[in-house]
């Protein structure tokens, strides 16, 4: 079977690439002869003047052919619908509409759907989901939100697909290297924040104070981990700013430093960083997932509905810290408290989804 997959891939976001890795592994387990084509960046169907001009002049000439020749069109997961801008909902909605126009069955896999207020966006999202052959969402609230706007198709709740590939990577790393429980506890603390336009100076100052305390009082190595780079929402911008506020030059070499900025190139690298850490402060959604995968004690900063929904679904609500409650004292207390987390085998639920649904798709 031939599958065309569309999502926010190739945008220098490690979390989206982790979803894609899990999706590919899942599809191959469901169909060992699967031919998978991933449309990245400019390969997507046009959704505006700029992309339309590129389309007209043939930059995406192969996209339509790939969709025409596929057996299933997959709109891949992540927070594509709901709490994003109206324009973002339109961009992703149009991808499904083009597939329907080509008479292709659409699979909506691994979606997060926030609350939708705009009546026209509600209608768009309702229609494209109701036409789908199969719908899976990654938390119960997303299922609720779809039902509220009138989606009547069956909706299956399946853990974030990053858990599927990630769990296999983690188990492999543990079997090869493990963790030396006789050695001293790790001196690494990971901080994975999300660059946002509306972050206050108070928020940044609180983190700078916390990082300085970790370094000077606790003698910890602090590692800022970027999950998003590139031109949009580049986490490195925020991490460098806080590093400078701590008193360490943003341009200083990270070599042999107790304060470093790291951009993992793969899920394997991210998992290795987290499994060897003592504690993690996570804002990026897939930094939370990586902490859960590796059983790393963490606190999750709730900047968006999808974060709260994920943490709630994973049974870790006590690890959640609201944006307005971020302070030096709160961060310090949560670090000292180190809320216990228990590794959950979410890959088993994805295996169940494969058996009950993906393997039963019409050939």
Describe this structure in words.
With 363 residues, the protein is an alpha/beta fold. The protein folds into two domains: 2-158, 3-Layer(aba) Sandwich (Rossmann fold), CATH 3.40.50; 182-344, Glycogen Phosphorylase B (Rossmann fold, 3-Layer(aba) Sandwich), CATH 3.40.50. It has helices at residues 14-30, 49-56, 61-68, 86-101, 119-130, 140-148, 162-176, 201-216, 235-246, 267-275, 285-293, 305-313, 328-337, 346-356; strands spanning 2-6, 35-39, 72-75, 78-81, 106-113, 134-137, 156-157, 188-192, 221-225, 259-262, 279-282, 298-302, 320-322. The longest helix has 17 residues, at 14-30.
Entry summary:
By secondary structure, the protein is of the alpha/beta class. It has helices at 14-30, 49-56, 61-68, 86-101, 119-130, 140-148, 162-176, 201-216, 235-246, 267-275, 285-293, 305-313, 328-337, 346-356, and strands at residues 2-6, 35-39, 72-75, 78-81, 106-113, 134-137, 156-157, 188-192, 221-225, 259-262, 279-282, 298-302, 320-322.
């Amino acid at each position: 079977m031939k599958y065309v997959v569309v999502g926010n891939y190739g945008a220098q976001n490690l979390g989206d690439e982790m979803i894609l890795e899990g999706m590919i592994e899942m599809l191959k387990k469901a169909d060992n002869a699967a031919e998978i084509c991933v449309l990245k960046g400019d390969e997507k169907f046009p959704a505006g003047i700029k992309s339309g001009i590129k389309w007209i002049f043939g930059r995406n000439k192969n996209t339509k052919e790939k969709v025409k020749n596929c057996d299933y069109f997959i709109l891949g997961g992540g927070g594509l619908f709901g709490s994003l801008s109206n324009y973002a909902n339109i961009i992703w909605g149009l991808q499904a509409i083009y597939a329907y126009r080509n008479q292709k069955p659409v699979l909506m896999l691994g979606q997060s759907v926030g609350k939708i207020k705009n009546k026209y966006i509600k209608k768009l999202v309702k229609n494209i989901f109701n036409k789908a052959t199969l719908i899976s969402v990654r938390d119960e609230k997303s299922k609720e939100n779809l039902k509220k706007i009138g989606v009547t198709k069956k909706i299956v709740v399946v853990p974030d697909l990053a858990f599927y590939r990630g769990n296999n990577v983690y188990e492999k790393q543990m079997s090869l290297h493990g963790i030396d429980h006789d050695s001293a506890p790790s001196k690494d603390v990971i901080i994975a924040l999300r660059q946002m336009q509306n972050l206050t100076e108070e928020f940044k100052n609180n983190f700078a104070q916390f990082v300085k305390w970790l370094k000077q009082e606790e003698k910890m190595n602090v590692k800022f981990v970027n999950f998003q780079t590139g031109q949009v929402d580049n986490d490195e911008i925020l991490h460098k700013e806080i590093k400078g506020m701590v008193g360490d030059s943003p341009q200083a070499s990270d070599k042999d430093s107790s304060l470093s900025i790291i951009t993992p190139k793969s899920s394997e690298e991210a998992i290795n960083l987290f499994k060897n850490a003592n504690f993690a402060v996570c804002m990026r959604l897939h930094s939370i997932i990586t902490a859960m995968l590796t059983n790393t004690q963490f606190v999750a900063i709730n900047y968006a509905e999808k974060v709260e929904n994920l943490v709630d679904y994973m049974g870790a609500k006590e690890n959640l810290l609201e944006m307005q409650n971020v302070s030096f004292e709160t961060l310090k207390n949560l670090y000292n408290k180190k809320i216990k987390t228990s590794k959950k085998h979410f890959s088993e639920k994805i295996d169940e989804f494969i058996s009950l649904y993906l393997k039963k798709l019409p050939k």
